[in-house]
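Problem 3 from the worked examples.
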Amino acid sequence: MNGVERVGSEFYGNDYLPAKPFTSLETLRFEDLPEWKEWLSFRGEGGEFPRLQEFYIKNCPKLTGDLPIQLPSLIKLEIEGCNQLLVSLPRFPAIRKLKMLKCGKVLCQIQYSGFTSLESLVVSDISQLKELPPGLRWLSINNCESVESPLERMLQSNTHLQYLEIKHCSFSRFLQRGGLPTTLKSLSIYNSKKLEFLLQEFLKCHHPFLERLSIHGTCNSLSSFSFGFFPRLTHLEISDLERLESLSITIPEAGLTSLQWMFIQGCTNLVSIGLPTLDSSCPLLASSQQSVGHALSSLQTLTLHDCPELLFPREGFPSKLRSLEIHNCNKLSPQEDWGLQRFSSLTHFRISGGCEGLETFPKDCLLPSNLTSLQISRLPDLKSLDNNGLKHLALLENLWVDWCPKLQFLAEQGFEHLTSLKELRISDCASLQSLTQVGLQHLNCLRRLCISGCHKLQCLTEERLPASLSFLEIRYCPLLKRRCKFREGQDWHYISHIPCIVIDDQAF
């Protein structure tokens, strides 16, 4: 409402003003009122919103005040993008979640007893916060220069903090007074400067309850770091640290027995990740290779994304992986000596981007026989799928192939051995002309077949597709669309029994 400048008595009913105008209202939101400057609050006994639980004011840049002061039932308050707001925030005895971002000078003295129920706090201006409520569990700090002083001051008053998020902040010195609390279960850092002042000490300390650690983006001061002493760590995420060259994980006496998920993305200069092996307490690091041992017996998911310099030596992966994804890591080309065929737990494998010169995939004995999901994407030189590498994948249920511009054959000897295949997706393979050699009619477990963006594909099958197929989708395949035209195409009788057929935007 671009014209609203003032909210006054008319908001509560003009001439008719009940004692409590909004007796049932539980949620109130004001958003995107660019000219709103003034709010004249209702001053009746008991307040205007006795049951209000959630209150939002967002993107009202000219609003200066006031705000309702009697909100006895308020649980959640968010004020964001109100740069001119100048009010004193009253105490709300029931409030649990408070968010204040880019909201001018909202004077909030949350250290007092009126905020004893507060559990989550998201703030950008923390200069006025002298301490934290004793029950606070979740704290997010945004856009703060020299964040260490107010952070130290606040943490001194809170010994129960479990979730800490730091966004777009900068550090100018090391933390004093013991650093971050050992009660943390999750630490997330986004696009903050001079992180070495925080991380160097933090990564050396023992954090017995830490479960999640995420470090994201634009920190140009870190070229390497190592960490350990996180016995309960289950999730580790590192992304867009462009200067990071090496990462080392040391194993304390108890081991990283809880680590299940590791995601590394956009570390364009990363050449070394060191994880210890079973028979050595020292990380195996090399200047241009990555040694990943088997001590991380609990690690189930490993994702490597946009790390073009990363290399793996022989037997480089933790042996209990269930999911392995490699995206745009130009020097990581799947090899037999990776030992994946021995990984009895690996059920999902995805390779996407890079692998220049790789014309056939997968090679014999590359993938484990227990694989249930295989995704092959953006391999620029791939010309065919290798039958020798697929023939033992009897448990494979999902096969996706996309953005392989030179792919001409899926498998010259067919897919008959993929007896468990339930879903087959093929998209954006510009050179693919025929699927007749695949033998789709023999895939008696196939339920979904999706084909899109294969402009040269002319023929799907020479026999009736299996009765198990319940869904067929064909999009942006003009030649195939002509052959599968409803009741008229020469291949229509091969597919007419399928319950659901979608060709471009038409369903049959």
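Problem 4, a separate protein:
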Amino acid sequence: MGCSQRLKACWKCVLCFPVVLCVLYFSSPSLRFFATFMPVEKCKLESARALLQDNSVDAGLDLMTRHDVQTCTYWRAPIIWEGMFDPLLYDMMHQSDGSSVALTVFAVGRYLDAYLPAFLNSSEHHFMLGLPVTYYIFTDKPENVPDMKLPPLRSLRVIKVEKHSRWQDISMMRMKTISDVIETDIRRRCTHVFCFDVDQVFTGRFGSEALGDSVALLHAYYYRLPKSFYTYDRNPKSKAYMKTGDFYYHAAIFGGLCENVKALANACYQSIMEDKENNVEALWHDESHLNKYLWLHKPSRVLSPEYCWDPLIGHNSDIKVTRLEWAPKQYKKLRAP
């Protein structure tokens, strides 16, 4: 083997090393445990009054109480953790301001029967209690949506959508559907939108402290890892291509004011369609495009992994409470043709 070939082989090994570490990390509970001891950036603001606030109550956030985690971003957005906020103050403010929330969720194919009943039932116990909430259920089988008796201020709308042959296309094309329904319906009924994956279960308060102009979620598996481990799309041919970023955001939850969620959905859909025209598909589909958008358009509010935790990660001292948990995945069964 010549010198140049040896150099190329060594370089390939260097490039593959982070990928190998990622595989080991996801498959090894012991490695995930040691990741909890990795140092994290700390909020450099002395007071929450220096935040770029979504609302007046944000000035009362206790950024110092959680010295174990990062409680703000470098662009001065809060990262919401248990212990930082008074839930009653947020509820009172949003009730006084007349805030209302649309919850969108896609339950297509086998996902409806497998996950939607538990998702909706748990939401009724934990999601935005005390505020008007409208559920928007997108499904190819409207007749199978559970018949729920909802209390005052809460309602449910079922919208039929096409079932695509590949789950990846269902995931990516939801962006257009969300944008269209915000324009034709949601913006006339609600002030805020939250978009969820259906294979999750609410386990604790998911309340008005999460509402903001533009809301993103830290991915439970990546928030303590170095940026070199983040699985951004590295293909320069994709519109989702990123060399680096701020955080790795999880597309299982995103939200904000109606106009801001519509702008995000439009941008992601346009990028997805440009990729399709060029016969390119981003590594993690709509999540890759969402990460690119949120890198270019910083969220005003970031939710900690408490708001979408995977119990399979195991014990983590950062997580004082879980508000939403991943349901057990059944990919082979649910994604089969």
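Solution to problem 4. Strands lie at 79-80, 101-106, 133-139, 154-160, 192-196, 200-202, 214-217, 253-257, 301-303, 324-326. Residues 7-19 have pLDDT under 50 and may be disordered.
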